[in-house]
Amino acid sequence: MTIIQTARYGMAQEALAIVGGNVLTQTGLIRADVMVEEGIVTAIGLDLDLPVAAKVINAAGCVVGPGFVDLHTHLREPGKEQAETIATGARAAALGGYTAVVAMPNTDPVLDSAFVVRAVLDLGAVSTCEVAVAGAITVGRQGEALSPIAELAKLGVQLFTDDGSGVQHGGVARRALDYCRGLGVTYAEHCEDNAIAAGGVVHEGEWSAKLGLPGQPASAEEAMVARDLLLARELGARLHLLHLSTQGSVDLVRQAKAAGIKVTAEAAPHHFTLTDATLQSYDAVFKVNPPLRPDHHVQAIIQGFLDGTIDAVATDHAPHTKETKDLPFDEAPPGMLGLETAFSLTYERLVLGAKMSIEQLFQVMSTNPARIAGLDRSGARPYGHTPHGELVAVGNVANLVVVDLDATWTVDGSSFASLAANTPYEGRVMHGAIRHTVLRGEPVVLEGVATR
Ligand code: DOR
């Protein structure tokens, strides 16, 4: 196979035909073949004239739609390459059906300077999915001096967050929101008030009491959601709320949207599939921040997706080495893998379990996150990222995923492309699988296997 890369977009030059699938187009799901030439969708229909040299990939019984976009990926490079690198994280993303991810800034050094951000973007440019960057809001994520937001925005950074922790000082948050508004970029918050959380490592409630682990109440998240919504309303700023996990947060965002506040929100699959009862095992694989919650919060997150309060599924993919996850529960770092299980979990819980349509699944996993990240057609994309999240149409860049809704598979963390194996779903049978992923016309995953 010969793939020639163009200098600017790295479009695949080899013609590709995706045959036999149900294709997600402007007019809904239609049974069609998709022709891709030089990285662009050139025809959709039945009985297409395929160029003799075209590579044919089988999509029989599958859905062909826009590649997924993850708003929340911890790639760990630079600083913790033993847990993940940009290359391994991007491969895990491609295997999970993603054609673009947003890398979180809590690396070492922190993504708070043009030098480090450019290094991550450069490594991302040669990996198996497109890598955008969320820049830190404050220098070193220390919550004090603002990072060079304007300089990073010039590099194409659209989201700014101190993720891993919330901005504790309301005055700093207000100034940063105002600055982001002026630059047309988005302030994204990890909502956790440290004073209220008081060092809690699990949700405060029945299980923290039974297990004797320090808990943090739901209000630690909700207080910061409320603060930021008030600030965003006052300033007319755009706000994105990361990994929401409580019923109160969903209610606040629902009211804020009804009141016209420019807010978007994401939630992670573990917050709509797992409860804090899993902590009975004392296994730190279930330790995550924000913590797993009781079932009524889980149900509220699901409802938030169904009524559009929550815009996007975001993985919060957080690789950690076995050595660190094997530490005693309160010393182990929070976080769990997400990229390679997100689609199946979303399909099972929201589509099979809560009657979300497949079209809506693509909205929350592709179209909405692409728009929030500025990776859609109208986004700034100055670093040469191509448009993501578009329904399949002639003329679009072929960033596509082919999903098999009938397939089942069993989670085996040791076989993941991710360097780490800290999945809370080990051994679980999943419904729905990624069959192929196509990046700029190049099949980077074929029959569930990464091609590079
Ligand atoms: O569980 C988490 N892990 N939550 C975060 O906010 C950070 C993340 C990490 O970087 O490991």
Describe the model.
With 452 residues, the chain is of the alpha/beta class. It folds into 2 domains: 108 residues, Urease, subunit C, domain 1 (Roll); 318 residues, Metal-dependent hydrolases (TIM Barrel, Alpha-Beta Barrel). The chain has 13 helices and 19 strands. Strands 1, 2, 3, 4, 5, 16, 17, 18 and 19 form a 9-stranded mixed sheet that branches. An 8-stranded parallel sheet has the order 6-7-8-9-10-13-14-15. α4 links the parallel β9 and β10. α4 packs across α7, α7 runs parallel beside α8 and α8 packs parallel to α10. It is globular and about 65 Å long. The two termini are 12 Å apart. The relative contact order is 0.16. The N terminus is likely disordered. It binds (4S)-2,6-dioxohexahydropyrimidine-4-carboxylic acid (DOR).
